[in-house]
C-alpha cells in the first residue's frame, strides 16, 4: 500500500463518519416532516412507507385540527412554552453572565470553592433534582403554578461556567483597569466595555437556555396538573398517552406528529438566526478551556 493510498483512506474515513452522523441526526427530523403531512390512517396504512410522502397531503387539515381540537389548547401550550423559554432563557442568561463575570474578574473569599460547587452541579443529572424540587415547591405552595417551572430554570451551571471561561479569554484585565483609570465605575465598565465583547457567549448561553427550557419535560410533568399551564412537551405526551390507551382510545396520532413538527420550527429558526454567535461563543470557550 502506497503513501498516497494511506493518505486517501485517512481522508475518506472522517467524511464517512460525518455522513453517518448527518444521517443519524437528520433521519428523525425527516420522518417527522413526512409524518406531519399524513392523515391518521396514512401514518399506518400509507402506500409510500414511513419515510416518504403520501399522495394525500394532509398537513393543512392537521393544522386545522390542531386549532380546533380541545378548543385549540395546542396553541395555548405553544404560548406557554414560549413564555417558559423566553423568561427562563433571559433569567438564566442574566444570572450566568453576572456570575461568570464575577468569578472571572473579581477576587473574593471562597471564590474557588463557590466555582467548584458550580462545576459539581454540572455532574448532577437534572432529572435527579426533580423530586427534591417538587417537594420544595410543594412545601412553599408553588406547585401547579408557572413559578414551579420558571424558578428552577433560572439556574444554569453550564452557562456560568461558559461565561467565566469566555470572560477569562476575551476580557483583558488591562482593558478594565484602563477604563477604571479613566473614571468609569464598575457598572459602567461592565455595561459599556465588557458586555459588548461578551455578546457571542451571551447569545450562546441564551440559545442553550431557551432550548433547554423549551424541551423541558420531566419537571413540568411532575409539578403541573392544570392542562392550561402545560408546555408543549407535556401536552403532546398527554395526547400520545390518549392515543395509546387501548383499542377504544381516540386515535389522534396525526395531531401528535404535526404538533411535534410545528413545535420544533421556532427552535430551528432561532438556531439559524443566531448560529454565527453560537458557534463563535462555543469556540472561544473551547480554546480557552
TrEMBL record:
Belongs to the binding-protein-dependent transport system permease family. It comes from Bifidobacterium felsineum. PROSITE patterns: ABC_TM1. This is ABC transporter permease. It comes from the Bacteria. It is a multi-pass membrane protein. It is found in: Cell membrane. GO terms for cellular component: plasma membrane. The keyword Transport applies. Residues 78-274 form the ABC transmembrane type-1 domain. Keywords: Cell membrane, Membrane, Transmembrane, Transmembrane helix, Transport. GO terms for biological process: transmembrane transport. The chain crosses the membrane at residues 12-33, 82-101, 113-135, 147-167, 197-219, 252-274. SUPFAM superfamilies: MetI-like.
Amino acid at each position: 500500500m502506497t503513501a498516497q493510498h494511506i493518505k486517501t483512506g485517512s481522508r475518506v474515513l472522517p467524511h464517512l463518519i460525518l455522513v453517518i452522523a448527518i444521517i443519524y441526526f437528520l433521519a428523525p427530523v425527516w420522518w417527522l416532516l413526512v409524518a406531519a403531512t399524513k392523515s391518521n390512517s396514512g401514518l399506518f396504512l400509507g402506500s409510500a412507507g414511513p419515510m416518504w410522502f403520501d399522495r394525500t397531503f394532509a398537513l393543512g387539515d392537521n393544522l386545522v385540527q390542531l386549532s380546533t381540537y380541545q378548543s385549540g389548547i395546542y396553541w395555548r401550550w405553544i404560548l406557554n412554552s414560549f413564555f417558559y423559554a423566553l423568561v427562563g432563557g433571559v433569567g438564566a442568561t442574566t444570572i450566568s453572565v453576572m456570575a461568570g463575570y464575577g468569578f472571572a474578574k473579581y477576587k473574593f473569599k471562597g471564590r474557588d470553592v463557590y466555582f467548584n460547587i458550580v462545576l459539581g452541579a454540572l455532574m448532577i443529572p437534572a432529572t435527579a433534582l426533580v423530586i427534591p424540587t417538587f417537594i420544595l415547591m410543594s412545601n412553599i405552595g408553588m406547585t401547579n403554578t408557572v413559578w414551579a417551572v420558571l424558578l428552577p430554570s433560572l439556574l444554569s451551571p453550564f452557562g456560568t461556567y461558559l461565561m467565566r471561561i469566555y470572560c477569562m479569554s476575551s476580557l483583558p484585565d488591562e482593558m478594565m483597569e484602563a477604563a477604571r483609570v479613566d473614571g468609569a465605575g464598575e457598572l459602567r465598565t461592565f455595561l459599556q466595555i465588557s458586555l459588548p465583547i461578551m455578546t457571542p457567549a451571551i447569545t450562546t448561553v441564551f440559545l442553550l437556555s431557551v432550548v433547554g427550557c423549551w424541551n423541558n419535560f420531566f419537571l413540568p410533568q411532575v409539578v403541573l396538573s392544570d392542562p392550561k399551564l402545560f408546555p408543549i412537551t407535556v401536552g403532546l405526551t398527554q395526547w400520545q398517552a390518549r392515543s395509546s390507551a387501548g383499542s377504544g382510545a381516540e386515535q389522534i396520532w396525526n395531531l401528535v406528529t404535526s404538533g411535534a413538527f410545528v413545535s420544533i420550527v421556532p427552535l430551528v429558526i432561532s438556531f439559524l438566526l443566531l448560529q454565527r454567535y453560537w458557534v463563535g461563543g462555543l469556540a472561544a470557550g473551547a480554546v480557552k478551556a
